[in-house]
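Sharing in case it's useful to others searching the archive later.

Someone asked me privately for the predicted structure of Branched chain amino acid ABC transporter, so I'm posting the question and my answer publicly. Question first, with the sequence:
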Amino acid sequence: MKKLHIGAIAAVAALTVSACGSSGGDASGDAAAPTGAPIVIGAQAPIKGATAYPQTAYGLEAGVHYVNEVLGGINGRPLEVDVCGGDGSPETSINCANGFVSKNVPLVIDAVDQSMGAAVPILGSAGIPIIGTLAGSFVADAAEYGQAFYFTGPVSFAALASMSALDTMGKTTASLAVNESPTSHAYVDDLIMPIADGMGIDVSVQYPPASGANLNVVAATQLADNPDMAGVIALPEDGCTSLFQALRRQGYEDTILAGSCSQFIDEMGTDAAGIVTQPRLWVPLAKESAPAEVQEQLDIFADAMDAVGYGNELSSRSIYTFAAIVNIAQILSDHGGEITAGTVTDAFKAVKDFPSFAGPTVTCDGQQWPGVATTCNAQAIFFEVQEDGTLRSVDENGYIDLDPSLMPAS
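And my answer, the predicted structure tokens:
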């Protein structure tokens, strides 16, 4: 079976990611090679358009490589992922969902695609569960129990986590950027501002366009507010780097909030020291401060990414999709039996105290976050960039519990 390279994925709407033959690299093992009819699952990844995250596709490819070449597939059968390229529009998401239904896939991975919400009613009607590390939209988060399962907290959880990080560090003013979109405004108005107000934090927000933004101007706008903390709520990786560089060039030496961005660290060198990032999982740059079992998992991720030609793309986005693939493969292998949409849903409903890949221990009983049945965990992790470019967990225990009572009433 020919392996299609994801490097060209942005040029097409969908393709199949497979790794049934040997691809070399260090991510190799002694498991028997998978045989028989492949298990084909779907994935909607934001790999097209102005706010594309191609790293999500790289992680998917590496995950398939690892599952097939190291773990021996799922119950001895090879895994394939049919990737539909999201571009941020509901129309594309609907087309992706209809395609998955016509192919009768047993599950669809949400690769943190902001337009995933448009697919929820279609996939829900077909009984096809959505699975991912975290949701790309509020609509996906709000799906009924059994329609979606996410290994970390809901979209709204990130708002509580970021404001809690500011509060923990004693910050009382912040100026933060997020790309212009209706979703961004709703996120800020309905979550960031009420949580910040409740904590006594004064937050101002800039909404640069997804393409063509002058981030030097955004940086100057943030500094005009004289904040305790500048930075982002969320921007693409290149946007984060450009904004942070502009802030440093304009003399800002205080703490910067990086959201889930991480690629700025290599490009900024010592200027990145003190920047706080909040990915959902342990990431490679935090390996030195990670528990031993997580260090091993981070090595697995790095080896697999290198094996498929993306060893320099070890971002939070790529590990999110890689981890989702590995978690899915392990849960379905443990469950055994025929793999259909119904059996996948049953398998995930039965997940209890499952040690997720480079992440928290998860239980998918629909009770982990008030009012959000899709989330399987309610913990957060924060890292601060060190002078040598590594990351260290802000809390010595890594993951910490957050207080859902601080969330605004719906």
